[in-house]
Amino acid sequence: DPVKYPQFAKQFSQNGKDVREGSIVVKSGSKFKLIDPSDLVNYGYNQSGQVSVDSLAIEQKITSAIINVTSSKNPVLLTLKGHEEGDLPSQVTSQLKDENYTVKDVNLVLKDSELTEGAALLINSPKRDISSDEADKIKNFLSKGGRAIFLMDITQNDLPNFQSLLNSYGVGIKRMMVVEGDPNSSTNYPIYLVPEMGTQEIVNPLKSDNMPVLIPGAQAVEIQKLKKSSIDIEPLLTTSQNSWGKASSNPQTVEKEQGDYAGPFNIAVAVTDKSQ
Q: Beta strand 147-151 with 120-124: parallel, antiparallel or unpaired?
């Protein structure tokens, strides 16, 4: 009862939230996690656009809190900033929070910025290129066992330093708009792709749960013929044999035209350098 015991309740205020009636506090030693009553349900929208309760999230939230307070170290996700990157959707940040990730922005242009050992780096849809110094910092981070996720949108700007960084790991981005000609591999609009999933462990949970992946607009990931022998590249998402890529940087139609690229294309891959 935060009214009856205000001092007791105050010590468990966390991240701008105060203890209120119905709150749950999970505590172990000096660590604690505050669960707000509103976090115990998953919300959605009905056909009228009104907020509705979809399901209960009690077990998920409490289990997450127990893991949080009993873990000696929680995972860290660093999101690169400074190149007009896209913001993470609230659903993603909420899921990361439930899985006890600490999400931090990092701007590698700043003198004292660094990529923390043991963290993962997320590069989310940059519109502008990184500098050569930033590329060197990322390469150094990866060479020491760091992990990174590159989500690269189609852009009119050239990104030579990003390309060079990806090339050093045996892959590159082919700037094109991928169009799917197989109706079983797309929605009603052929650039909204439903690609085939590979056998890599990253996509195995999606396959086992029968959850297709929808990609609204993609470009191809090229696997280079010449790469380090220690690098292993595994396709994650692949288009059908009936797909094609628009060669024009400003296509006026999705129909296949002379000069367009022939599929299939890898639109997501996993790269592992076994020497690191």
A: parallel
Of the pLDDT bands very low, low, confident and very high (cuts 50, 70, 90), residue 193 is very high
Which helix (H) or strand (E) covers residue 3, if one does? none
Region of residue 61 (phi > 0: left; psi between -120 and 50: alpha; otherwise: beta)? alpha
**Shortest CA distance to 88 belongs to which of 20, 163, 151?**
151
Distance from C-alpha of 148 to C-alpha of 123, rounded to nearest angstrom: 8
CA 48 to CA 2: how far, in whole Å?
36
Question: What percentage of residues in the chain have a pLDDT greater than 70?
Answer: 100
Residues contacting 232, CB < 8 A, separation 6+ = 271, 272, 273, 274
> What is the torsional sign of CA 32, 37, 42, 48?
negative
Q: Mean pLDDT over all residues of the chain?
A: 91
Question: Which of residues 154 and 150 earns the better pLDDT score?
Answer: 150
- Cα dist. 242→39, 116, 185, 194, 213 in Å? 45, 43, 9, 13, 18
This prediction has a pTM of 0.79
Look at residue 119 and give its three-state secondary structure. Answer: coil
C-alpha distances out from residue 152 to 2, 25, 81, 99, Å:
47, 40, 14, 24
**Beta strand pairing status for 31-35 and 24-28?**
antiparallel
What is the C-alpha to C-alpha distance for residues 141 and 50, in angstroms, rounded to an integer?
Answer: 45
